[in-house]
Write a structure and sequence with these properties.
Layout lengths: L2 H20 L3 H8 L3 H8 L7 H21 L3 H9 L12 H5 L4 H16 L4
Length: 125
């Protein structure tokens, strides 16, 4: 599968499944994706794929976080609660996980994804 097709599929999954499950508003979507509102609108309408390939890892990590939360929390509202409550874990620095994701720091987003995966397995070593 070409990289742009994979990126487009990841982006479509984020918009179709993750954003509604997390009840993200437009500002939060823009924040976690790290793109302008115009870019988000164009991509959601399928009129532009510019920049998708470069953001594929980020969107993939967001989708992985969602997958981990689905395993931990059977109800979307519980996963949303986790995303929106301040977290004492060191990687969050007192922020909510959503606030951390909205910093649009690729390294931090990957660390949040790893943290969520560790929560699934119970192994934080």
């Amino acid at each position: 599968m070409p990289e742009s097709s994979l990126a487009g599929a990841q982006f479509a999954h984020f918009l179709r499944a993750v954003s509604p499950a997390w009840e993200l508003n437009s500002e939060e979507e823009i924040g976690v994706l790290g793109m302008s509102g115009d870019d988000l609108l164009q991509m959601s309408e399928g009129t532009s794929t510019d920049g998708l390939a470069s953001g594929a890892d980020l969107v993939g990590a967001l989708n992985e976080i969602h997958g981990s939360l689905c395993l931990i929390y059977p109800l979307d509202k519980d996963a949303r609660g986790w995303l929106r409550r301040p977290n004492a874990a060191r990687i969050f620095g007192g922020l909510t996980p959503l606030q951390a994701l909205m910093r649009h720091d690729a390294d931090l987003t990957l660390r949040v994804a790893n943290y969520a995966q560790s929560a699934v397995s119970g192994d934080f070593s």
